[in-house]
Amino acid sequence: MSDDLQDLYQEVILDHNKRPRNRGRLDHATCDAEGYNPLCGDHVHVYLQVEDGRVTDIRFEGSGCAISTASASMMTESVKGKTLEEAKELFRSFHAFVTRDKVETDLGNGLGKLEVFSGVCQYPARVKCATLAWHTVQAALENRTDNVSTE
Amino acid sequence: MSTIVTAMESTRDHTASAGYDVQRIRADFPILSRRVNGKPLVYLDNAATTQKPLAVMDAISRYYRQDNANIHRGVHELSVRATEAYEAARTRVQQFLGAARPEEIVFVRGATEGINLVAQSYGRPRLQQGDEVLITTMEHHSNIVPWQMVCEQTGARLRVVPISDAGEIDLDEYAALLGPRTRIVAVTHVSNALGTMNPVWAMIDLAHRQGAVVLVDGAQAVAHVSVDVAKLDCDFYVFSGHKIYGPTGVGVLYGRKELLDAMPPYQGGGDMIRSVSFEKTTYGDVPYKFEAGTPNISGGIGLAAALEYVQRIGLEAIAAWEHDLLAYATAALTAMPQVRIFGTAREKASVLSFVVEGVHPHDVGTILDREGIAVRAGHHCAQPVMQRFGVPATARASFGLYNTREEVDALVAAVRRVIEVFN
Ligand SMILES: Cc1ncc(COP(=O)(O)O)c(C=O)c1O
To answer: Among A97, B13, B259, B277, which is least packed, fewest CB within 10 Å?
Structure first.
């Protein structure tokens, strides 16, 4: 495998693609949202259970490429147990990380395992694949806030 | 499946296309010598758009350097020259398609606009509640949505011919769907997602017996098979310049003169009128009444150069060459147990759609791209085809007149790499 291909398809990504974590529906979800990338047909449905401002459980369903499947899988692992504020912050740093200009290198700090997506920024056509699940979880959490405020 | 047959065909055609000087042809396309991601470009996305030969770029450049002016409206020398070049382009298209007269050639932006024009100018005034428009499962979205729109506007019903597992239309099923209420049949000549070449002559004949008119979408056909609209006896035929080595933004609608004459204009504006007053405007004759506004003059001129280029090589020779490539590639990919090919019709052109087991087509596309190989990965604007075969997307290699067996070898090696990466 050529080097930058290896950067993109790191072992961890291939592993999450093959055996996605937290896959499936969540009965009793308190909020959920669907994300769709019309350009490539990737589709993801994220379900969350939020209690006292904290994500206590999260799952996803959907079909997509290795990058989008692995990203959804790892997103669920990273978001589980986080407060809503922490989850939003994580989304912001992840987004900045995969859309960064190659020269900046220090942005990944604090992302931990998610740094395996560092190769994505070299593939502009694939950034959307990496961020789809994150945009979707954002949407789900924002809906929830709406629901809460109308209750 | 038919591995052995394909391999035999491949040998036969390889000898048949001896004498085809592909290296000389490649030299006409400057972009083919560039590198992508450090590798020589292997351009196998010809169904999306083709590369342009120098002859086309030179014709456009010459026009802008020497003759640029607006057409049909100036007495001055340049306007006369521009008008002549544009009308000569129309005649070139007429001859290319075997149309009876140049007025039957309407310049449009592309196949999409041609279909919309027919849906709105032919379909909308005629279709009534209960009438039927018949299309097929393998249409490109641009030959589905305009018909859905006009059906919604008129209360007509859209009906769809199914396709087999091989990606073929069964003529009996087609005939059964044709009825006295069928007003329009719209069918692709060659499928962009499957490569199927449809028996359009038989479909046209059957439709005419029911009194329906037929639009053939030739977007994927004209670069690969010689078309004669008179022999086909079709009513409308559309194609896009950019898929036959010409520029983007220009395309062709062929329409039978009686039909075009009877249709109202599609858009209003300059160039399409005979006289205008606030009380009454009379429209110009065909084709001008469908060509409102300043057209894509350089595009028409570039398209004519592209058609001339293709005709000089000869569509028979091109078809034989590409058929060999397709058979060679099909045999190689069929031999890989992890690869599934979509579209195994007996008559095919140019297109090889496939998936690698357990690997999403986007990942295939990215890995191929790293090897300098350009293919399309996605639904190919033919989502009903994807639904029919139960996949979200496929990878698609599509061949043009400049591709080679070595490039097919590169494709096959890269697909092997995909399998390695995802083992
Ligand atoms: C079969 C078919 N019809 C129509 C079109 C639309 O062509 P254009 O986008 O040039 O109008 C395409 C383009 O992909 C096609 O493949």
So the answer is: B277
